[in-house]
Automatic annotation (TrEMBL):
Keywords: Iron, Lyase, Metal-binding
Residue ranges occupied by any Nitrile hydratase alpha/Thiocyanate hydrolase gamma domain in the UniProt entry: 22-203
GO molecular function, one term: nitrile hydratase activity
EC numbers for this chain: 4.2.1.84
InterPro entries given in the database record: CN_Hdrase_a/SCN_Hdrase_g_sf, CN_Hdrtase_a/SCN_Hdrlase_g, CN_Hdrtase_asu/SCN_Hdrlase_gsu, Nitrile_hydratase_asu
Protein's recorded name: nitrile hydratase
Family affiliation: Belongs to the nitrile hydratase subunit alpha family.
The organism's place on the tree of life at top rank: Bacteria
Reaction it catalyzes: an aliphatic primary amide = an aliphatic nitrile + H2O
Length: 213
C-alpha cells in the first residue's frame, strides 16, 4: 500500500514538460556555440556534469546520513528539524532552505518525487539526475512506486509500505536509508561510503559492506 503526501506546488520557476523552457534552450544554444568554436569539449562537459551529479554533490548528504547512523542524538535532531541539523554541518543554500528528513524502516520505505517539475535539495544531493526530472518518473512514482523501485533493482517485501513524498519549492526531502548490517563500529567516513545519491531519494537502498556498485 502507498501513502502519498500531497503538497501545493507554488513554484517560482518553469515546469518541465515536453518542450524545453526558454532558459534551457538558451543554455543549449550557448553550449553549441562554445563547442563549435572549440572552447568546450562536449565529452569533457558530460563527464564534469556526471561527476557533480553522482560523486561530489551527494557527498554532503552522505555525511549527513552517516552522522545520523553513528550519532543517535544527531539523528533525533535531523528528524525533528532537518534544516537546522543539516546546517550544523555547513550545508545550506537556496535549494534546501526547508528540509524534511524521512527515515526508512523495515516497515516503511520512503520515495521522493516532484510531480510538477524537479524541486530537489541541491545543498545535500548536488545536481538532480535526469531521470528525477523526467515525466515518466514524476508520474509513475505516485501511481506505481513499487514498479518504479523494481526498475531501479529494488525489491521490497510485499508487507513493506511505500510512502511517496512530493517535493515543493518550499519543502525538500532527504531519505535516511536503513543502515546496512555488519557495519557496527564503523566510523562516519566509512559509513558515508555506503550512501548513494539514489538511496537518499529512496530509489535505492544503502550499499552493503563489500558492495562495489
Amino acid at each position: 500500500m502507498t501513502a502519498h503526501d500531497h503538497h501545493d506546488h507554488d513554484h517560482d520557476h518553469d515546469h518541465e514538460g515536453s518542450a524545453l523552457p526558454e532558459i534551457a534552450l538558451r543554455v543549449k544554444a550557448l553550449e553549441s556555440i562554445l563547442v563549435e568554436k572549440g572552447y568546450v569539449d562536449r565529452a569533457a562537459l558530460d563527464v564534469l556534469i556526471e561527476t557533480y551529479e553522482t560523486r561530489i554533490g551527494p557527498r554532503n548528504g552522505a555525511r549527513v546520513v552517516a552522522k545520523a547512523w553513528a550519532d543517535p542524538a544527531y539523528r533525533d535532531r535531523l528528524r525533528a528539524d532537518a534544516s537546522a541539523a543539516i546546517a550544523e554541518l555547513g550545508f545550506i543554500g537556496r535549494q534546501g532552505e526547508h528540509m524534511v528528513a524521512v527515515e526508512n524502516t523495515p516497515d516503511t520505505h520512503n520515495l521522493v518525487v516532484c510531480t510538477l517539475c524537479s524541486c530537489y535539495p541541491w545543498p545535500v544531493l548536488g545536481l538532480p539526475p535526469v531521470w528525477y526530472k523526467s515525466a515518466p518518473y514524476r508520474s509513475r512514482a505516485v501511481i506505481d512506486p513499487r514498479g518504479v523501485l523494481a526498475d531501479f533493482g529494488v525489491a521490497l517485501p510485499p508487507e513493506t509500505k511505500i510512502r511517496v513524498w512530493d517535493s515543493t519549492a518550499e519543502t525538500r526531502y532527504l531519505v535516511i536509508p536503513m543502515r546496512p548490517a555488519g557495519t557496527e563500529g564503523w566510523d562516519e567516513d566509512a559509513l558515508a561510503g555506503l550512501v548513494s545519491r539514489d538511496s537518499m531519494i529512496g530509489a535505492d537502498v544503502a550499499h552493503a559492506p563489500g558492495d562495489a556498485r
